[in-house]
Amino acid sequence: MKLLVIFLYFIFLFQHVRSNEIISDGFIKTEGVHFMLNESPFYANGFNAYWLMQIGSDPSQRDKVSSTLQNAATHGLTVGRTWAFSDAGSSPLQYSPGYYNENMFQGLDFAIYEAGKNRIKLILSLVNNYNDFGGKKQYVDWANGQGQSLSSEDDFFTNSVVKDYFKNHIKTVLTRTNSISGVAYKDDPTIMAWELMNEPRCNSDQSGNTMQAWISEMASYIKSIDSNHLVEAGLEGFYGYSDAQKLQFNPNFQVGTDFITNNQISHIDFATVHSYPEQWLTGQDDEAQLNFLTNWLSVHIQDAQSILNKPIIFAEFGKTSKGPGYTPEKRDTLFNTVYSSIWGSASGGGAAAGGMFWQLMAEGMDSYRDGYEIIFSECPSVTDIIVQQSNRLNKIRKMYARLKNIEKWNRARERYNHRN
Q: Which segment of the chain is annotated as a signal peptide (predicted)?
């Protein structure tokens, strides 16, 4: 009888852990260099789809949001990254400071709801560094229109009026109640993290002090509203002057950010890196660009592990079909290079927690093509590589879940033996 009770308890725990592997309805947290979900490490093999809100705002096009997220889940992808901003312009989320387009917000509601249905977590970016979709320039223009005298886009990071505009946007998004699910964004576990800015740059202050202060202030502000979600800065990964020796790992430019000090801010929960050697090393051949990429991946993983003690995601990478000498095989090589570095770290319990290619699209979205698009039905070889990575990272999570199950079973057996 004693053995039967223990056996039945073991079966219960095993089924409980198996269900936790499938049902991803908790908030993602961090423990050291790992993301954690349901007491097991979580890996972010994922994609970028900046357009989800925009397409989701058009009921006649919403099927593309649904099919993209369904396809992503079918191929084992676990995280998507998308915009929670569109400032002024032809299809705004925010018409002007504090005035919002409800139709566009409902598009974002739909994207979040569909992601949740497909058990995909989302990273939502809150503003753009660039002029596309408004960005920091639009905020500065708004302030100038209200009597400020600002001459640089980089005043976005220092001017008190502009910062208040942005804080209001943060608060509006975080406290938004989803019109479909009825859940406030700040309470929705479908959202994995808030991203302060897509690729923040402050060229007017190469010291990095301006960016350091801004990231610290805005990350703290988010945490004051929302204690459930993770926060990341949106960095590309460029090193700054806090350690001059690391500048050698940058491409030959600096943008006022510092991968080390920016990510050491207490309210920044994990590090991000973008990887575009063909854009950064124009004129260099494929071999030189690939060598740069390999080193770029390695040094950032090492620094996340040994200096930051935080997870790291390679949040954008890809290879454009519009580049000189492009072949699908060269794109496959780049994907394999990124994924192999992530796998090499993750399989040993290291800080690399995933990669997110730019960008996943549905069929029938020709106007959104930028050369980097991945449409599974059109890209069989790279699709196989993506699925292989999903499977490899999922095996690590299952391994940890089973180990956790054994620990629970041993504790249960000890309690049972103690009682009897």
A: 1-19
